[in-house]
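Predict structure. Chain length: 245.
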Amino acid sequence: MGSTLRVGTCSWKYPSWNGLVYSKAAGIDYLSEYAARYDTVEVDQWFWALPEPAAAAQYASVTPDSFRFTVKLPNMLSLTHFYPKKGEPAPRPNPQFLSAPLFQDVVARLESLSPKIGMLMLQFEYLKKQKMASQEEFLRHLGRFFDTIPRSLPIAVEPRNPRWIDQRYFEFLAERGLSHVFLQGYYMPSIFETWQRFGGLVRDSMMRDMKDRSLTIYLNINNHFEGSAPLTIERLRERGLFDGV
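Prediction complete.
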């Protein structure tokens, strides 16, 4: 059984995509028209606030059964400390950091969307030593969290400390059935380099080798090399990057 590749964008409501994705720049249901062209999308709006059940239900209602969402969990879960306000001597600890009750509340708010959620993503900022002393401490916090929460939906972890992306980290994920968010940029190691080191693959065949591993791969495009994410997706298709996956 081969792998499944889903290709989409990071968010979708961009009037400038008129003619590329949308029939008009305004007065349409953007997500409904988007879902007629792509089979996945990243929802990043709830990274900054708790999900609204009404919005989750609306997203579920206008997309086909085969469509999948990758959802960023609220950063209230992943921030170790609040961002300091002007005049504060030091950032204040966040009491909701990796809170199991908060996570359960988020999942409950997403209930109507759950059948179409392909992945929940737990994104961390770059953690300085003042916030997290070491990778060991980071994994200890994660371990307690994942040993406590119900696991009804797939979860992926996105650390932004390059030196923490090592064998120990991937063994931790494997032991708990978690996924990794491969992030290109933000001073992180190349996704090809990471795959080569920890996937036993070579750079030039990364996508082709993935197809034989029975994986579900979510590729979220968010860049401006061609002027917009849809144009970048089309350029990659033309180059045959998605062939056979």
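Summary: The chain has nine helices and seven strands.
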